């Protein structure tokens, strides 16, 4: 008989790549992870892992078991949601991860609405970068994630997530007020080819957007905090590409729209597949959608 708890360990290994990282995600020691995986191999009667010293990778049988592990996890989420639905009272806590501007745009208004209409529901918010929230969700550290999507970030988690579009926002150029184009009604990105840039750190999808729309930008400073980026722009240290709702006014900096079709950031809420019907999550998702400024149009527009 295959123990579903061990399937969770196998999924963590597939997600994080090493026994040590899987253990950190599951709050287990590397030794405990190795023991669970060895026991799972015995239960399956198949070799699930290839081992080279301390390095491991999945065999074809291991990859197949990850697919089944995802299906089992979704069914367990559904079972929990169904049981919770038997209770007519909606009460409890939802752990939510979101990036800063989405907290301002939709999360905080949704929490205010919940306090008035569903006082038994509380939301515990973690402020994390958009690309970091999905791993937290898949690891079970949070129940709901507000994150972002670009064409350059292909979906690799369709079997594991249910998504709810919230809003779409374009990227604008942030310029010092003394910049030669600061008073323009719109800017062609090629006009900034020789400027210094202030950009997010490598690995942040917003940096990838800049690298695609601007050939070989000269990046002078790096930060994942858009307010810090804007402050550096105001100090005359360069220009930046920032999602519209992430911009906060700073003396000395202005935003100018891009000419033509700008790159877009699509913002959505995500839950683990099978959990969307949980009464707590349904209640919070409903308020997030209600708070979204243009969720009815979130499926429209162009991807980068």
Automatic annotation (TrEMBL):
Superkingdom in the source lineage: Bacteria
Molecular function per GO: DNA binding; DNA-binding transcription factor activity
Residue intervals of the HTH lysR-type domain: 2-59
InterPro entries: LysR_HTH_N, LysR_subst-bd, WH-like_DNA-bd_sf, WH_DNA-bd_sf
CDD domains: PBP2_LTTR_like_6
One GO cellular component term noted in the UniProt record for this chain: protein-DNA complex
Pfam families xrefs: HTH_1, LysR_substrate
Keywords: DNA-binding, Transcription, Transcription regulation
PANTHER family, A to Z: LYSR SUBSTRATE-BINDING, TRANSCRIPTIONAL DUAL REGULATOR HCAR-RELATED
Similarity comment: Belongs to the LysR transcriptional regulatory family.
Protein name per its UniProtKB record: LysR family transcriptional regulator
């Amino acid at each position: 008989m295959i123990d579903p708890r061990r399937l969770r360990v196998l999924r963590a290994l597939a997600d994080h790549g090493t026994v040590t990282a899987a253990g950190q995600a599951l709050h287990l020691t590397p030794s405990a992870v190795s023991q669970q995986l060895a026991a799972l191999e015995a239960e399956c009667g198949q070799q699930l892992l290839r081992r080279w010293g301390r390095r491991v990778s999945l065999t074809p049988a291991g990859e197949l078991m990850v697919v089944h592990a995802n299906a089992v996890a979704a069914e367990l989420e559904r079972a929990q949601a169904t049981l919770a639905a038997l209770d007519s009272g909606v009460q409890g806590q939802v752990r939510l991860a979101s990036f800063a501007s989405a907290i301002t745009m939709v999360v905080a208004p949704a929490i205010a609405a919940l306090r008035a209409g569903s006082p038994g529901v509380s939301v515990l918010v973690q402020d994390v970068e958009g690309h970091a929230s999905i791993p937290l969700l898949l690891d079970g550290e949070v129940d709901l994630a507000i994150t972002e999507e670009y064409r350059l970030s292909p979906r690799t988690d369709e079997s594991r997530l249910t998504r709810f579009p919230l809003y779409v926002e374009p990227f604008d150029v942030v310029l010092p007020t003394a910049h030669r184009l600061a008073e323009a009604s719109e800017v062609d990105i090629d006009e900034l080819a020789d400027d210094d840039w202030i950009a997010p750190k490598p690995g942040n999808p917003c940096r990838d957007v800049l690298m695609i729309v601007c050939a070989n930008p000269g990046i002078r400073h790096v930060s994942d905090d858009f307010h810090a980026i804007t402050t550096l722009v105001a100090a005359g240290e360069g220009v930046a590409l920032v999602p519209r709702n992430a911009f906060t006014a700073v003396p000395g900096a202005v935003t100018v729209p891009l000419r033509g079709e700008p790159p877009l950031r699509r913002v959505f809420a995500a839950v683990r597949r099978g959990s969307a019907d949980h009464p707590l999550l349904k209640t919070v998702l409903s308020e997030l959608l209600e708070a979204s400024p243009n969720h009815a149009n979130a499926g429209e527009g162009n991807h980068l």
